[in-house]
Amino acid sequence: MLEKAEKPVDPTRERILDAALDLFGERGPSGTTVREIAKRAKVNVAAISYHFGGKDELYRAVATHVTGLIHGRVMEGAGRYLAALPANPAAAFEALQALLETIVDVIVGPEEMRRVARFILREQMEPTEAFEIFYGTLSRLHLAACRFFGMAAGVDSESADTKMRVFLLIGQVIFLRVAEAAVRRRLDIGGYDAAFLAEVKTLVRQNAHAAVEAARKAKP
Question: CA angle, corner 164, sides to 168 and 59, nearest 5?
Fold first, then answer.
């Protein structure tokens, strides 16, 4: 995993990134102008040139910022499990559960992640050069989850079956963020509170256990 970089916060740069995250997420890079970002950030166009160089560089900077945010929070919640391979299948399953629960906390819990999810979803649907920035970090998380799953189930962690099972486990969590409006309406809830997140984690643990057991029984 990448190391967390400690850099001094520049308020102007942060405002530009914040405004660009919203506008790029709403309209994509082709539908957003530097002038619109400057107006939203309440800075002049020259400030964007000074800090980022141009729109393409700014878009990549937003992608880097977003992946760094996700990576940092995942490491805070599950870093000790990602630091080394588990010692046995039971420890591997515990690590898998911890990683999935951390993803719940990082992706589903904070309301601010709506903006981040919108940006990432657009990039997934219409990949740009910035896709590699996302893929570099997110693929490492998937790789770690596959290793935990493979060890827990006693199967090949790099098989297509394992990769797909892990994608579906992670996907069930991400769905709650990208389809939040439908979820809240169908469940008749006002938002994702602590009780809801606790219930989600319980169900995710149960689903992970079922997936591991199914993979273990299906192996030759």
Answer: 75
Q: Which residue has the tokens 């990949």?
A: 127
CA 144 – CA 1 distance, rounded (Å): 10
Estimate to the nearest angstrom the gap between the alpha carbon of 220 and the chain centroid: 33
Two tokens, residue 154: 């006693």
Tens digits of per-residue pLDDT, 98-127? Answer: 999 999 999 999 988 999 999 999 999 889
The CA distance from 100 to 208, in Å, is 9
Q: Which CATH superfamily is domain 65-218 in?
A: Tetracycline Repressor, domain 2 (1.10.357.10)
Contact 205, 189 (CB under 8 A): no
CB 1 within 8 A of CB 76: no
Count, residues in the chain: 220
Q: Which two tokens stand for residue 29?
A: 């890079």
Helices marked H in 32-190 — which ranges? 34-41, 45-52, 55-82, 89-103, 113-125, 131-153, 160-178, 180-187
